[in-house]
Amino acid sequence: MRFVVVTGMSGSGKRTVLKMLEDTGFYCVDNLPVSLIEKFMELISLPNSEVSKVALGLDVRSDQSFEEVTRILYQLREKGYAFEILFMDADENVLINRYKESRRVHPLALDDRVEEGVHRERKIMEEIRRSADYVIDTSHLLTRELKEELDRIFVQNEEYNSLMVTVMSFGFKRGIPVDADLVLDVRFLPNPFYIKELKKLTGNDQAVRDYVMSYSEAGEFLDKLTDLLRFLIPNYIKEGKYRLVIAIGCTGGKHRSVTLANELYERMKDQGHYGLKLYHRDVERE
């Protein structure tokens, strides 16, 4: 029997996860009353049960105490019930925007703004997030990428990468990414924008890549950054960090930053002990 409790921040994608798990053969139940959680686990764990994979969705509701949910889960573990906790998360700005776009009411917003509801929920969910077996951040995760991550953990049973690293290119003229953990400025390199035949290309084009990497400073920068990340990432993992955004910026976010983000991604992609994504924020902008 594999029993997964799916919880996390409202708007982070819990119901999408339950649908995806259902497609892989999980028997899914969403938001049982608190008083029925223990009884449900007892029944589903009976020796003659035909169900081998179960996912139970639990989230904050205005009419029930999530602290009680956390207490019951701890009690069940003490009684010997085996289950995993999958915590779905996202940046607060992303959650707020999702609620505004959908025009839904946050369960804890009451008469306040969505922001206040998100802040209240974050505080309530702190304890169960710390005890979660898996944390998946959907702030910049495509639906396809979320499905791949769930398949890797719950279908292929591969080792869970607790840290998801995003290598991002951006342009300073459009602002530093609000979710960046490390910001690197590569405007010290010559700008292909001023080369007529390169101006309308991007760092995804071989000609721009060759131009940027022809300068020894670009390779030296990557060597030093790679060494720094080799030191930082294992320590981030040890301290329980689940998301790292490395933002590499140039003036417009189309040439130098894109080239170096691509090069860094290639250097990091076979490390194996963390998840890795590549994202070019401004490359398609006019």
Features:
five-stranded parallel β-sheet, elongated, 9 strands, single chain, 40% helix, 286 residues, four-stranded parallel β-sheet, Rossmann fold, alpha/beta
Whole-number average pLDDT? Answer: 89
Secondary-structure element string: EHEHEHEHHEHEEHHEHE
The overall number of domains is: 2
Q: What is the level-2 CATH architecture name of the largest domain? A: 3-Layer(aba) Sandwich
Q: Level of helix content?
A: 40-55%
Main beta-sheet strand count, sense and barrel state = 5 strands, parallel
Q: How much is the radius of gyration in Å?
A: 22 Å
C-alpha geometry: elongated
Strand element count: 9
Coarse structural class: alpha/beta
CATH topology of the largest domain: Rossmann fold
Stretches with pLDDT under 50, minimum 5 residues: none
Straight-line N-to-C gap: 53 Å
Based on the structure, what is the oligomeric state of the protein chains?
Answer: single chain
Which superfamily, in CATH terms, is the homologous superfamily of the largest domain? P-loop containing nucleotide triphosphate hydrolases
β content, as a range? 15-25%
- Main sheet: which strands, in order across? 2-3-1-4-5
Can you tell me about this structure?
It is a single chain. The chain is of the alpha/beta class and 286 residues long. It has two domains: 2-154, Rossmann fold (3-Layer(aba) Sandwich); 164-280, no CATH class. 40% of the residues lie in helices and 18% in strands. It contains nine helices and nine strands. Strands 2-3-1-4-5 form a five-stranded parallel beta sheet, sandwiched between helices. A four-stranded parallel beta sheet has the order 7-8-6-9, covered by helices on one side. Helix 4 (92-102) packs across helix 5 and helix 8 packs across helix 9 (256-268). The longest helix is centred in the last third of the chain and has 23 residues, at 216-238. The radius of gyration is 22 Å and the shape is elongated. The protein starts with a strand and ends in a 6-residue tail after the last strand. The model has no long low-confidence stretch (mean pLDDT 89).
